Structure formats: structure tokens, C-alpha cells
Amino acid sequence: MALSLKRHGDAPVGALTPPRPAGLRKRWLAAGVLAVLVTLVVGVSLGPVSLPPGSVAIELLNLLPGVHLDSGLTEREIAIVTELRLPRVVLGLLVGGLLALAGGTYQGVFRNPLADPYLLGVAAGAGLAVTVVLTLGVGAGGALSGLPVTVPLAAFVGSLGAVAMTYLLGSAGGRSRSPAALILAGVAVSAFLSAGQTYLLQQHAESLQQVYSWLLGRLATAGWQDVLLVLPYFALTSLITLLHGRELDVLSVGDDEAASLGLHPQRSRYLLIAAASLGTAAAVSASGLIGFVGIIVPHTVRMLAGASYRVILPLSLLFGGAFLALTDVVARTAAAPEEIPIGVVTALLGGPFFVVVLRSARRVLT
Which of 227, 224, 229, 267 lies closest to 247 in space, CA to CA? Predict the structure, then answer.
């Protein structure tokens, strides 16, 4: 199956539709911010102990400097809001924003509507590294979210290591490193690393439950510690990708055209890939493997708000965070007191969505 783009006139089919007027951007930006705020209130209000949304909103306002309002909540309920639920909701906003932002970035860089954060072997690299830690007991001692403290670090290193392997394999055939070559390299690296993970699990069957618990995704936190670990990577990834939204718009017309406009396509492409991969690795290290966010959110934004990446990227950041945090609410309340792995919920939502995207994008991949 060829991965080269067919063109219709001078624009690639993958570009879908021309960007809509910039005036829509402010309205959608306001909608994204509102979605995040509503998600904060809903995510903190719902749980084993339901809290009044109005009181929760007031208590969240009390976190702002100089605000002192009576929310009517008891000290125990305030502790539930600020120390238990709010860190988990904020982590969901950060992880979901990173995954959606990375998905939108990959789709622009590769001019491929099916690209997502796991395209370059990130998931396979993280999965193998975590499997090594959990099956061989490397560095066990201390705990974070019920798992050895080395798990987030292992996932982070494994993710970036897989991306580096993909780069090396994608460039092994010569100096020309096309998006198609990197996609194929990512598939090959994922297959190789997944085989290693399967072998380890076969040899250490007693660790199956622990490994799969992480692989299915989770947002359980140890308070604000996990949030503080992810926040610097969130800030760096967001800054780099949002500042290069215009360059993604230029890259969508092709490398030759982009070069004629004064852009360095390869340099821009690899900077964006590195930033998106760094953000994905940070998200995976904190939450495990949560799929389909990078497919669902950017495509929905593209269909509703326009095809310019100066619109897609910031809105994916906002709506991606809101989407994952609300999905987490479903995961922890739908089968209460049991908790459904959040990766299962996103897969149930993302599977049918992926089929729709695949059908609409089949001309791009043939």
C-alpha cells in the first residue's frame, strides 16, 4: 500500500478543506476554555462522594489569590476537592492536551490523517521498558500510584529511545528521510519492541496483571507530585508546537513549495516531531498507554473549526484535555465502586471513530 499523497490540483488531498476565516478562532478558543472550566467542576464534583457543583466551583475560586468565599463544604470535603480529585482532573487535562496536541502535530508533519502519538513507536518503547521494570524488579523501592517509582522514568526513557530508533532506521537508506519512510520505520520498531515485550511476559506470567494494569492506562495520582512532573514537558511541548502552527500550514502544501517560501522543511519537521514525541513520552510516563485521543480530538476540531493548524493545535490542546478528563469521570463512575481502565473507555469511543476517519481518508493512503 503506497503512502504517498495524491494531489488534487496544487493542494494535497490530506489538507481536506481550506482554513476557515480567522474570526471563528476567538469563538472556538472561548469554547475550549469554557470546556476546560466545566470539566474541572464536573470532574471534581463526581465520585464516590458526590459534591454540589456550585460549592465545588466556589472552592476552586478560593484557590485564586485574594479570593475567600464560603463554599459550604466541610473540611473533609475541601480536602477531597483539593488533595484527591483536583490533582487527578488536572493531570487528565495535561495528559489529554499533550496527546491531542501531539496527534495534531504528527498529522500535519506527515500529512497523514491517521497519524497519532504512537506512530513512531512511543507506545511500544514505553510498554517494553515498563515490562522490564515490573517483570525483573529493576530498582524496586518506593511507590508511586501503587507501582514501583521507577515505572514513570522507565516509560519516559523507553518512549524516547523508541523514537530515536525510528529516526535511525528511517534514515538508514540515505540522506532523504521522507514522512513515509519514518512511518514504515515506526511500524517496524513497534513490531520489534512488542515482540520483546511479549517474550518477557511469557517468561514472567506472574507479572501479567501488574503490567496490563499499566498498559490499559490510568490517571490515579499521588497528589500533586505527578502533575508537577508532567507540567514542564507540557509547557515546553505546547510552546514549541503552538509557535510553529503557521509552519505546519506551509508544510501541508509540500516541501518544494515550503522551501520556496523561505521555510526549511526538514528542520521544521524534525523539531516538531521531537517536541511532540517529548510531550507524548511525558504523558505516557504519567498515565500509561491511552489510545485514540490523538485521532479523535484533532479530527473533530478540524471538522468543526477549520483546517488551519493555527486553529487545530490550540483547540486540540484545550479540547483534548477536557475530553480525557471527562472520559476519566466515566471510567471511575460507570462501574463504581470498581474503576474501568481509561484506555478501555477511549478505545470504545475511538474504535468506531477511527473507522470513520479511515473511510474518509482512504484516498490519501492509496
Answer: 267
